[in-house]
Amino acid sequence: MSRVVMKFGGTSVADLDRIANAAKKVEQEVANGHEVVVIVSAMSGKTNELVGWVRETSDMHDRAEYDAIVSSGENITAGLLAQRLKEMGISARSWQGWQVPVQTTGAHEAARIEGIPSDNLDASFASGHKVAVVAGFQGIGPDGRITTLGRGGSDTTAVAFAAALDAVRCDIYTDVDGIYTTDPRIVSTARKIRKISYEEMLELASLGAKVLQTRSVELAMRYKVPLRVLSSFEDDISETAGTLVCDEEDTMESKVVHGIAYSKDEAKVTLVSVADRPGIAAAIFGPLADAGVNVDMIVQNISEDGRTDMTFSCPVDQVPHALKAMDEAKMDLNFEKIVTDTEVAKVSMVGVGMRSHAGVAAKMFKILANEGVNIQVITTSEIKVSVLVDRKYMELAVRALHDAFELETAA
Ligand code: ADP
Ligand code: ASP
Ligand code: MG
């Protein structure tokens, strides 16, 4: 029997009515003759509330306890949806991550899925259950403790189940009806993309387009999972609904720039006047990596007097960890002071067409200059250009770029 994976995000299960709405969509797939694995997120706002409670208790909280607390939101939704399905006469049960088990690394708050043995779910389906409702975002580490997969991690749970159970499809139900050229909530002219390559989606996700968690796209690309994003509020769930993430050859877009992403929760940290000597970068970024800080952009200024400023960006909530790591390495690094700016944002443009077209970055810089937006840090790769700007100009920058690159019109 064929299997499908359906994932419902927070707004799609925000209250009992929406859970009932999700249950109807599950019912349709059961009626289509599938065994259904449903991955659920916590009800909208729940995870933020739980994270807030952890932060209130401590700036430098215990990461294993964070996971124990923050994973609980998904358990509630899984139970409620299974209960609702049973009320509708559909044979279903809820599963917490450890019961499956979803085996992960021990990296609390950002664990990676290492395996999902299918035996327990296979047995459940064989015994007559039609639906397995699984709490997303959570797993079990090597020491038997609960882990979580990073914010937005239920997307990754869904793709990992689709790969492990050889599902014919992985459908991500959310509050928008597909993937757009940029976040439709900040640019009203954003255009829905019918098909997008794994590679472009991977860049957009890693650069902040939170519609899919980065790791979920990585897994979909590796295991060739047909991944679809569609609305849980619309009736159409037929094959043409939503946006398909697929191989590059199967997409038709010919625009050089395909999408714009932004990430607001960035911070910029500068170590002022460090010795410009071989090994200095390793001496800075080694301890940051050990402290679990995800360093993104890096700039080292050229120095004349044997000293240099080193600037890096990282997620704003990791700043306390970064500062602590730098403070502990201060004797070795011998910097004058640290300057932190927690009011910055990153804006990025993505498109596979950039491989063969020069001038995208130059045009981007000119548009931002015309808007009076100062660029603080720049990074580029084969298919993307990113800039760090003052957070108050972020939306302006995204809109101006979307307009100037004419993303509202199809290729
Ligand atoms: P869920 O709770 O269903 O996981 P998320 O809030 O994580 O939903 O992701 C959906 C949101 O992603 C949308 O509401 C939208 O604001 C945002 N988003 C950002 N970039 C894009 C994009 N390029 N296309 C569609 N949605 C986007
Ligand atoms: N509930 C988690 C979060 O808000 C996981 C998810 O929704 O994907 O990040
Ligand atoms: Mg999400």
Overall description:
This protein has 411 residues and is α/β, with parallel strands linked by helices. The chain contains 13 helices and 20 strands. It has helices spanning 16-31, 46-57, 63-70, 72-87, 119-126, 154-164, 198-206, 214-223, 280-290, 319-328, 330-333, 360-370, 394-404, and strands spanning 3-8, 35-40, 92-95, 103-104, 113-115, 131-135, 138-140, 146-148, 169-174, 179-180, 192-193, 195-197, 227-231, 243-246, 259-275, 298-300, 307-315, 337-350, 375-381, 384-390. Strands 3-6-2-1-9-13-14-12 form an eight-stranded mixed β-sheet, sandwiched between helices. Strands 16-17-15-18-20-19 form a six-stranded antiparallel β-sheet. A two-stranded antiparallel ribbon has the order 4-5. The structure holds adenosine-5'-diphosphate, aspartic acid (ASP) and magnesium ion (MG). Magnesium ion (MG) binds next to loops.
The multimeric state of the shown protein is single chain
**What is the tally of beta strands?**
20
Radius of gyration equals: 23 Å
Lateral strand order in the biggest sheet: 3-6-2-1-9-13-14-12
Low-confidence stretches: none
In the CATH classification, which architecture of the largest domain applies?
A: 3-Layer(aba) Sandwich
Class inferred from helices and paired strands: alpha/beta
Give the names of the bound compounds.
adenosine-5'-diphosphate, aspartic acid, magnesium ion
Please count the helical segments.
13
**CATH classification, class level of the largest domain:** Alpha Beta
Overall geometry comes to globular
When the domains are counted, the total is: 2
CATH topology grouping of the largest domain: Carbamate kinase
Q: N- to C-terminal separation?
A: 40 Å
The largest sheet is: 8 strands, mixed
Helix content: 25-40%
Mean pLDDT: 95
By CATH, the superfamily of the largest domain comes out as Acetylglutamate kinase-like
Report the portion of residues in β strands. 25-35%
